[in-house]
């Protein structure tokens, strides 16, 4: 590979931040976070297949304060990636490229993911009888 | 229109591999498949916030649940592989890229097999 000081395309820090940029970066960041989420899911499934003792241990870790914070973060990542992913699927049809709709749809993904995340966790606590 | 190649290009034989859009397309296909699977998973987990080991174990033995869980693991692993591959292509260069790609592919298969085997062990072997 040539190791010359060839110009690279400008990276994040040279741009003025916009909500569409936030949505784009979040899409990749949440995707990476969800890879970790899948790892936790598979760990949880192996624990269920292993037996009650190990399963209860894993459940104890996942429902601890730190565990809940991680799962809350993964819930947000899933909802943001879902909304942003649907936006990308819509953009694949050739729409939402004008600045106004692009910006509005980006805002919409973030509003959706925050509301959905809080809604899911409110529901979880309500179903557990803790609210 | 059937052949626009120059004679030299023909001899070199470096034409399209006919797979250029496959990665892009399969990322979309697996993304669409993930939508109902994730909604089912979230709703299911909400229904099990109070469940203990025995309840979850017998739930996982229901064929419908086991099949959906296997589809979820398989499709998510595949979608994860496609997505992380693009991230590696963007940020990792040279020899490290090849190593990263290999690790990603091996890890993806191990993860998928672990998850699917666990579901099968519960539903068939349990």
Key words describing this protein structure:
heterodimer, A: mainly alpha, 3 helical TM bundles of succinate and fumarate reductases, 4 helices, 0% strand, B: 3 helical TM bundles of succinate and fumarate reductases
How would you summarize what this structure contains?
The complex is a heterodimer of chains A (131) and B (126). Chain A has helices at 19-50, 52-62, 65-91, 99-127.
Description:
The complex is a heterodimer of chains A (131) and B (126). By secondary structure, chain A is mostly helical. Helices cover 76% and strands 0% of the residues of chain A. Chain A has helices spanning 19-50, 52-62, 65-91, 99-127. Chain A is extended and about 55 Å long. Chain B has one domain: Fumarate reductase/succinate dehydrogenase, transmembrane subunit (3 helical TM bundles of succinate and fumarate reductases), CATH 1.20.1300.10. Chain B contains five helices and no strands. Chain B is elongated, with a radius of gyration of 21 Å. Chains A and B meet through helix 1, helix 2, helix 3 and helix 4 of A and helix 2, helix 3, helix 4 and helix 5 of B.
Q: Indicate the CATH topology of chain A.
A: 3 helical TM bundles of succinate and fumarate reductases
If interface size is counted as residues with C-beta under 8 Å from the partner's C-beta, which chains form the largest one? Answer: A-B, 30 and 36 residues
Low-confidence stretches of chain A: none
Instruction: Identify the CATH homologous superfamily of chain A.
Output: Fumarate reductase/succinate dehydrogenase, transmembrane subunit
How many strand elements of chain A? 0
């Amino acid at each position: 590979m040539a190791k010359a000081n060839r110009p690279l395309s400008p990276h994040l820090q040279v741009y003025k931040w916009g909500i569409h940029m936030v949505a784009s970066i979040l899409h990749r960041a949440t995707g990476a976070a969800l890879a970790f989420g899948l790892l936790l899911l598979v760990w949880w499934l192996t624990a269920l297949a292993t037996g009650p003792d190990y399963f209860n241990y894993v459940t104890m870790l996942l429902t601890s304060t730190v565990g809940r914070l991680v799962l809350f973060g993964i819930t947000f990542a899933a909802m943001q990636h879902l909304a942003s992913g649907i936006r990308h699927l819509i953009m694949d049809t050739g729409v939402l490229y004008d600045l106004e709709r692009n910006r509005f749809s980006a805002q919409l993904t973030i509003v959706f993911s925050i509301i959905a995340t809080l809604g899911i966790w409110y529901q979880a606590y309500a179903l557990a009888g803790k609210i | 229109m059937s052949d626009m190649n120059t004679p030299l290009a023909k001899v070199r034989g470096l034409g399209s591999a006919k797979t250029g859009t496959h990665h892009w397309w399969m990322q979309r296909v697996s993304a669409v498949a993930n939508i109902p699977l994730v909604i089912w998973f979230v709703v299911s987990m909400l229904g099990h916030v109070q469940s203990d080991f025995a309840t979850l174990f017998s739930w996982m033995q229901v064929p419908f649940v086991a099949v959906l869980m296997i589809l979820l693991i398989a499709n998510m692993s595949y979608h994860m592989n496609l997505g992380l591959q693009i991230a590696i292509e963007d940020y990792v260069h040279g020899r490290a890229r090849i190593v990263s790609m290999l690790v990603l592919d091996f890890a993806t298969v191990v993860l998928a097999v672990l998850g699917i085997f666990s579901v099968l062990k519960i539903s068939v072997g349990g």
